[in-house]
Amino acid sequence: MYPRLEINITKLKHNVCRLKSILNEENLKMAIVTKAYCAIPEVVEEISNEYVDYIADSRIKNLKKLQSLKLPKILLRIPMISESKEVVKYSDISFNSEIETIYRLNEEAKNINKVHNIVLMVDLGDLREGYFNEEELCNVVDNVLNLKNIKLIGIGTNLTCYGAILPSQENLGGLVKIAKNIEDKHNIKLEFISGGNSSSIYLLQEGKLPKGITNLRLGEAILLGKETAYGNFIEETYHDSFKLYCEIIEIKDKPSMPIGEIGKDAFGKVPHYEDKGIMKRAIVGIGKQDIDIESIFPTDENIQIIGASSDHMILDITNSESIYNIGDILGFVVTSYGGILTACTSNYVEKKVIYNLSTQIQLV
User: Based on CB atoms within 10 Å of each CB, which residue in 107, 118, 306, 325 is the most buried?
Assistant: First the structure.
């Protein structure tokens, strides 16, 4: 069935191994973030080998699918009160920033005779989730330590995802300092100091990650072999673990410029076109409902993506050296996290896990 997304397990496992070796240089633990591919159980099971310390996801529905795996499971997105019962049931650790929610988690954990581990999030300037004021954070710690079914195991932060603030020695050093202040004031030991995501890899590689950070949460670095602070590829990793295959449903010679007065397209935007004369245009059976078209590139380098509506993607195949026919399959490399996310979230894209293929693999 098409469109089909092929996920190369061999390459992903290699990337996990490579990244763990980088983290090991500073004795850091690794959480693999599974949300981009909707925590497909077969994929998670295959890549969560001896190199992985935690499984992390933003959706409790995804963690629910992974209960057979023994690794500790982290809920990354701060919980909704309405899902607190499932949070304590299906996750071992949750990231939190609201005391009301923590109280509810304590109640639900008590109901099932369980102690639920939490990490308090600290906002270091990216302005997404977390406590911005250290005094407020310390007051929350006071309250949390009095709860019998909640255990505070650490603090964490998120950078680059919303405000695009880069990790640095200064802001992550501040996180370590806050952790030390909490330990000294409350006479406790925090085992979990989470220094962010794939955007922190560059600090690690430059030997600038502050001492005291205990773990990183890695998604894109594993999936695409890329650190996300500057978008640089990580040496000795694969960058093409996800490939998309689509079927041609129309081929026609047509003008490159639409004919008539141009208004808004189906997504409310006014498009602009360049007049290139008559071109050979192919349509494949996929659209913006299924994929971020700016995140994929044809494996035939002489094909260009012109655009897409909800269900059709239009290609310029004029300059291709290949002769294509209706029903032929075109391949695309998925080059961004957003592309993986949209394709895996779409129910209309078949997912296929592939193994081995060692003779076809080359490090990029």
Answer: 118
